[in-house]
Write a structure and sequence with these properties.
Length: 431
Amino acid sequence: MPYKHNNNTHTLKKSWKKIIYPAAIAASLTCSFAWADTTIRMLHLEADPKVVAIWEQVGHDYEKANPGQHIKWEYLENEAFKQKLPTLLQSEQRPDIFYSWGGGNFQTRVDAGLLKDVTKEMQDIKPRFSEASFNAYNYKGKQYGLPYMVSQVGFWYNKALFAKAGVDAEKIVTWDDFLAAVKKLQAAGITPITTAGADKWPVQFYWTLLTMRQAGQQGIQDAIDKKGQGFASDDFVKAGEELKRLVDLKPFQSGHLAASFGNSSGNFGDGKAAMQLMGDWNYLFQAQQSISGKGVVDDNLGWMNFPVLKNGKGKATDTLGGIAGWVLTSDASPEAVQWLKYFSNIEMQKHLAKINMIIPVVKGADEAIENPFKKRIAQNIANSTWHQLFYDQAFGANVGSVVNDVSVGIVSGHLSPQEAAEQVQEAWEFE
């Protein structure tokens, strides 16, 4: 899942002690098991001090309650995680547990024999989770891990910049409405959108959502099932043409093709662009990446769902996002399995939801969400008519990378919508 923070392990190790850990969590998690002396390695791409502080304290409490158990936290930045994980999983340095998105990459690793079947071990805690999130880590009837959070992609916008340009977000319903808003922002001397071409996946959101809005759920499923022309069909070409309509307006910041996710979010947080198409995780990240460290504050921040296409088959209530969680490697110990069950508890989920870090997957934890943006997004997902996983995860690494590449290809002008659709279809045929 495209979810990224800048990483500084040394800073995180120092900063967690500054955060008061909720006593309720520590109390609720105190339990012990008679396991052998074991080190459990857990690899993830989280780097927010608030989250890391909670995770490390949970690990510390677990170690105290279970003498001989040692939780070893390992961190990689998002892109490094994606690049290094395949090699790590084939090496003696592979972790016991690692962060994973559902979808094609997860399934490919199961097929390769890299993940541990924990179907029996997880049955007693299955009722703890929403069915959809739990099943994201079930493949061919077997369970390989546990969910952690869900997410949605939409437009974050700056209310003050919208007001300056005379743009009313409530009136942006269709793609034509959106393009008209882009023109208004430009006329007011405001950069409409910031994006991150260097990392590619933020650009992929445009092509993905436009294909969803044009082809609809059945059209996407038909393409997956290799019916007709698949991803090279008219609907996918049309989606690319709609993206080109946006690109032709030159809506993005200067240097957008070389910009990273951090650069892009910093631009938005500094008020240098009116919109950013990004997931709910960007609520905190845009502030962290801004010069002030505060970003676009709540009173000036807005969220809107991706607009619909006129005559498109998709619905406004169809959502794009991810279900992220944890899987266990094939030789993970029984101690690692027990630790993951312990780690995935309602009290921690509630606290992370309360401090705006996640949209939780454990039943009842959503009651702790206080932030109005997170509440709205959680409700969007709950009411979704179809929640599509990120294409670069759902379709596997090979096809996913092609989706990322062709999306940037359309935005850069190096590929036509027809060529882009054909390249995705060709990659899918070989999958």
